[in-house]
Amino acid sequence: MNEEKFTGKADVYDKYRPTYPAEIIDWLYEKTHAETVADIGAGTGIFTKCLSAKPWKITAVEPNADMLEKLRANCPNIEIVTAPAENTGISEKSIDLVTAATAFHWFDREKFKAECQRIFTPKGRLALVWNNHRENDFMHERDRVFLKYCGICNSVTGSSEKEGDLFLRNEYFSEMEYFSAKNGMLMDEEQFVGYSLSHSYSLKKGDENYEEFVEALREAVRKFQRDGKVEVPYEATCYLGKFDLR
Asked: Nearest Cα to 51, choosing from 73, 65, 36, 64?
């Protein structure tokens, strides 16, 4: 599902998207004692590289050709599968832990759930991870620019963060645990513009008003910068859940 959303954005995605805190990986390792992990919707491998800090056997799954090129370069020693989240081709009952980092909102929820149930070992669990923006004056200005030029100011998840939280806790998982860690960043003008252009809903070069959009992003940084940088506050969140196996 949505395999082409990031076509043409792999370079800026790989260069400017934030990584994930080590605390998330440590927590997952301690909670699951997993031996095999499948990172689904791996993109350019940002979270996959984080997973590599532990000795589990990792398989990365990604359908987009542009992202795959970066993924192979970033993770040369990891098994990589070209497939959608809902039909990975991974062997049945072979995966202890499935991860999806800033990707689940692009999947067909029920088909993905069925695929997890198919590939899970009896102890299989799913970890859904996001880097979520937190509010400050600069992020309000950022949202204003995105609303004006892109018609949207946040990722297309189909629900608010609160609604998504309730869905995962009360509807999607049969059992669930939650962990979060602060993951704020300081970005200079180039980093923030590059990060902004990595979003699926951001304008691309050649789009109407693209140059004006980029200049508005630059002006937002100049307005709020301190010593040449702005604070982009994140909180990394992880939902670790089980399904009733079929």
From this structure: 36
